[in-house]
């Protein structure tokens, strides 16, 4: 099983284990407005399904804190809408603060833990993504398997 610290600086695609769909920023623009929805979509050959991981705190620990940046949309980070801890809270792409700009970095709703769970020989690492501020996990709304 991979140490989450080894993910620092990597560009990855998060694929749902059950559906085979990828976590996708809903945009074809390089500079989309804030608030574009992040949802599940079948695999396509586009950068809006790829994410760059950056550890901004806790490097070397079992649970480092990451900022997850869109490869497609410059400056947009994975963002838990308004930092809500309610089930069903939308995840969006939102302009991220630069690391160190406000102490730790972006607001807690843009900070994430990536928990490695296992290795699946055919598809790579199995992970769970948890918001640092709300302590909730990324999942499919109502377990849905359709695009969107």
From TrEMBL:
<dbReference type="Pfam" id="PF14200">
    <property type="entry name" value="RicinB_lectin_2"/>
</dbReference>
<feature type="domain" description="Ricin B lectin">
    <location>
        <begin position="9"/>
        <end position="94"/>
    </location>
</feature>
<protein>
    <recommendedName>
        <fullName>Ricin B lectin domain-containing protein</fullName>
    </recommendedName>
</protein>
<dbReference type="InterPro" id="IPR000772">
    <property type="entry name" value="Ricin_B_lectin"/>
</dbReference>
<dbReference type="InterPro" id="IPR035992">
    <property type="entry name" value="Ricin_B-like_lectins"/>
</dbReference>
